[in-house]
Amino acid sequence: MSDPIKGTFENFTDFCHRPDPVYPKGQNGKFQCPCCGYFTLDEVGAYDICPVCFWEDDGTTGEHGFAPNGVDLQTARANFQEFGAVSERNKNHVRPPRADEKPQY
C-alpha cells in the first residue's frame, strides 16, 4: 500500500514544504490511493480525491492537523473497511472500483 509522509509539522509553511511521497503506479497509469489501495489517483500529494473511498490525498497521513479529510489515514482506512468510504457521511460520494484499478498481488 502507498506510504504517505508521516509526522507532525511545526506550522503550515513546513507542511507546504514537505517532500512528496512515492506511491506505486498501476498498469492503468494511476497512482495507488493510500487509503483504499486502489489505483485511482492522477497525481501524488496533489489533493486528488479517490472516487473509490473519497480520500483527498495531500501526501501525508493526516495526523498533523492540516488534513483535508477530517480524519487521519489510519482512521480513514478503518472507516473504509467498515463503511466503504473515509467516513460514513461520504458514502454517497464513492463508487465501486473498476477492474483496472484493483491491485495486482
Features:
4 strands; 105 residues; two-stranded antiparallel ribbon; globular; single chain; alpha+beta
User: Got a strand count?
Assistant: 4
Major sheet strand order:
1-2
What is the count of DSSP helices, taking H or I runs of 4+ residues? 2
Helix fraction by DSSP (H/I, runs of at least 4) = 10-25%
> Which term fits the overall shape?
globular
Could you tell me the radius of gyration in angstroms? 13 Å
Strand content: 5-15%
Rounded mean pLDDT is 86
The count of domains is 1
| Structural class assignment | alpha+beta
Topology:
Layout: H1 12-16, E1 31-32, E2 39-41, E3 48-49, E4 56-57, H2 73-83
Antiparallel strand pairs: 1-2, 3-4
Describe the structure.
By secondary structure, the chain is α+β, with helices and mostly antiparallel strands. The chain has one domain (12-101). It contains 2 helices and 4 strands; from the N terminus they run H-E-E-E-E-H. It has helices at 12-16, 73-83; strands spanning 31-32, 39-41, 48-49, 56-57. The chain has a two-stranded antiparallel ribbon. The chain has a two-stranded antiparallel ribbon with strand order 3-4. It starts with 11 loop residues before the first helix and ends in a 22-residue tail after the last helix. The model has no long low-confidence stretch (mean pLDDT 86).
